[in-house]
Write a structure and sequence with these properties.
Length: about 700
């Protein structure tokens, strides 16, 4: 399905404007993703984008990473209006089927994985209030990060520096949303520090979607010697009784996009929703700490990283076989306590070879998690939404062991990059609840992922590159827990394997306008697809092969008048190129738009005191299930506007902003629950909504 021209009208206007004029040259930022050797984005043989602090903080509440990631081509980051299930993020279609959290895309924060060893990650753990930048890597070189690397999103927070400073930020918006944040930073006696704490509360746009989120973060940086650096980071996330509004059917969405799905089986209260009847909700308590040591020995470098943490989750689902529970039913309440830890050690060696510079990184990464997992019925007597009888009791262990090597050779106009990683993932289950059978057992997955890239500097203003890789994706624990409808642990799931090809061009049209373009193809065998999904429980199966082919284009330009533009366009043909079951060859992958676009026209005065911007976002239709038989989410286009101001007085700096999203008050489906058995796929996005914010910083 093609994106209707009207959906791209605003973005197209910005694109033409961007090519027509120019101003100050965009700042160069050294990135470490892809090759692990620092280069600017322009000199990387990979599709990679930088989301800098200005864009992360640009008149946003800094609650969801989707606020800033919308401007990245190849990436679709959706706010589901459901803080119980986190964001829905996909990179070139990888991760689109996730019913909660992020999978298929690797998440990393300050060099420490925010994805578990099985590949499941939580973007909510990212602290955006003190973010310095986000690096987004797509394509073949993502595979060098191992399992579940259809893309890589790395968050880097700022180091404490300068004289002490204290800052507080308050925001308020539609649907009872409000946030308070306070942070302190500085450097004393050679120790840099950043401390941050925030609370976010919302009544929620959708019925039964209220949430409270508390976050805390601390970072210490020390330089015990001139050629060494020690960083210690700790963060915590707490969400108590976060309401889950669930998805709704197409008829319910059309009747009232904000309302929940009526429970047709509820004879006592015929208008009560499923979410209300089962009181669907999730409580999360997550904390972790990590440390990294970087030692430079001339041009060489040693880096050591270690981390550990705990995650506790209690979730009440809209799923119960009350009064007729089969032996295999594991209940509608999920309760697990996870301890996780890991380490990474790598050595960078720089030498000369054949008249060029050879940089080689050799490393080993290890991760481990242990879950104490229980399941309960979510009813007692005739009352739903309360913890009932025990139906599951087990210990789940996941470990990953990944040795890797990456090398880069530069000589004249050429850069050759190569990498090899061997990933071994071990999953084991010790079942202690035997009344429904013994699900104890284990699975082993292993795969070697090679990557190769070549960049040619055609001229100082034009770089050409090509790259290729093999990747793989194991099932996550949550994808293994169920088989079919009501079945136990799915030991038959295989890992998906993929082959990635990419070619691209990076050019400076002039000092003030830059264009990046990439074409790509990904072939995947044993693609993991939804088999059955209902009430928060989803089982998976391996399908045939899939094909992803697409084009990404980004353009940045600016003028001496203070105007600037940003355009990001993506087209993606993601299909099953081999049918299975009722799914015909050529059917589109669910959850993946055929086209997606972002456009921005912004203005900032020369002193940086005032600014304003108009944003346009457009998407083509998105299918909800593999056969493409049910109503897809229609394509949409929305406009957002923002204004900001800042002032300085002595040691004080003040900032204010206002944002109006969905200016034209469009009604549209913001995200989908892929493959829901009851056809409750649709999650509505808000209509016109507002956000106001103000901050005050004092530097001592």
């Amino acid at each position: 399905m093609k994106l209707h021209p009207s959906h791209l009208h605003a973005a197209a206007v910005l694109c033409v404007t961007g090519f027509a004029a120019a101003a100050g040259e965009p700042a160069e930022v050294v990135v470490v993703s892809a090759t692990r050797v620092g280069h600017t984005v322009f000199d990387m043989p990979a599709a990679i984008d930088i989301v800098d602090a200005d864009r992360i903080h640009a008149s946003q509440a800094r609650v969801n990473a989707s606020e800033a990631l919308a401007a990245v081509p190849g990436l679709v980051a959706q706010n589901r209006q459901n803080y119980a299930q986190d964001l829905q993020i996909s990179s070139r279609g990888f991760g689109a089927r996730s019913t909660f959290g992020v999978r298929g895309v690797r998440l990393i924060a300050d060099g420490i994985p925010a994805s578990m060893p099985d590949g499941q990650g939580q973007a909510a753990t990212f602290n955006l209030d003190i973010a310095e930048r986000i690096e987004v890597l797509r394509g073949p070189f993502s595979a060098i990060y191992g399992n579940h690397s259809g893309g890589v999103i790395q968050l880097f927070t700022r180091d404490g520096d300068g004289t002490p400073a204290l800052e507080t930020t308050l925001t308020a918006g539609s649907y009872g949303s409000r946030k308070a944040d306070v942070n302190a930073q500085g450097k004393q006696a050679g120790i840099g520090y950043v401390l941050d704490a925030s609370r976010f509360e919302t009544d929620g746009y959708r019925a039964h979607s209220a949430a409270t989120r508390d976050q805390a973060y601390a970072k210490l940086t020390l330089a015990p010697r001139d050629d060494a650096k020690l960083s210690i980071v700790a963060n915590a996330l707490r969400q108590d009784d976060t309401q889950d509004p669930l998805g709704v059917t197409w008829s319910s969405y059309q009747r009232d996009p904000r309302a929940g799905e009526i429970d047709a089986t509820d004879t006592q209260s015929p208008k009560r929703t499923l979410a209300d009847r089962y009181n669907t909700r999730k409580s999360i308590d997550h904390q972790q700490i990590g440390a990294s040591w970087e030692q430079r020995l001339g041009d060489d470098r040693l880096r050591l990283t270690a981390y550990g943490g705990n995650r506790q989750v209690v979730q009440y689902q809209a799923f119960s076989k009350a009064f007729q529970a089969p032996a295999t039913h594991s209940g509608g309440v999920v309760d697990f306590d996870r301890d996780f830890y890991g380490a990474d050690a790598n050595w960078l060696r720089v030498t000369q070879l054949a008249g060029g510079k050879l940089s080689t990184t050799v490393g080993i990464e290890y991760g481990h998690s242990t879950d104490g997992r229980k399941g309960y019925e979510n009813f007692v007597g005739a009352q739903f939404g309360v913890k009932g009888a025990l139906r599951r009791d087990e210990s789940d262990n996941v470990s990953s062991f990944d040795p890797y090597v990456q090398t880069e050779w530069q000589s004249g106009a050429w850069m050759l990059s190569a990498g090899l990683r061997n990933s071994s993932v071990r999953i084991s289950v010790d079942d202690r609840f035997l009344a429904n059978g013994n699900d104890s057992g284990g699975l082993d997955y292993s795969h070697t992922t090679p990557a190769l890239g070549l960049l040619y500097r055609w001229s100082p203003e034009l770089n050409l590159y090509a790259s290729a890789a093999r990747g793989f994706e194991t099932p996550t624990l949550n994808e293994l827990f169920y088989s079919g409808v009501g079945g136990g642990f799915n030991f038959g799931l295989q890992a998906a394997r993929s082959t990635h090809l990419e070619a691209g061009v990076k050019t400076r049209l002039n000092e003030r306008t830059r264009v990046n373009a990439a074409i790509f193809q990904v072939r995947t065998s044993d693609e993991l697809v939804v088999d059955s999904s209902s009430g928060g429980r989803t089982s998976y199966r391996n399908a045939g092969s899939t094909l992803r082919q697409g084009l990404e284009l980004s353009l940045d330009s600016s003028w001496s008048t203070g105007l600037s533009t940003r355009v990001a366009l993506t087209t993606l043909r993601a299909v099953y190129d081999k049918g299975f079951g009722l799914v015909q060859e050529g059917s589109r992958l669910p959850g993946v738009p055929n086209a997606y676009a972002y456009g921005e026209l912004a203005w900032q005065d020369r002193d940086g005191r005032y600014g304003a911007a108009l944003e346009a976002i457009a998407s083509s239709r998105i299918y909800a299930e593999d056969a493409n038989a049910d109503q897809p989410a229609p394509g949409y286009s929305v406009l957002n506007a923002r204004v900001n101001a800042s002032q300085q007085w002595r040691g004080w700096r003040f900032k204010q902003f206002a944002r109006l999203n969905n200016l034209l008050d469009k009604q549209y489906v913001g995200s989908l629950i892929v493959g829901d058995t009851n056809k409750r796929y649709y999650e509505a996005a808000p209509g016109r909504n507002w956000l106001l914010g103000a901050s005050a910083q004092y530097r001592f």
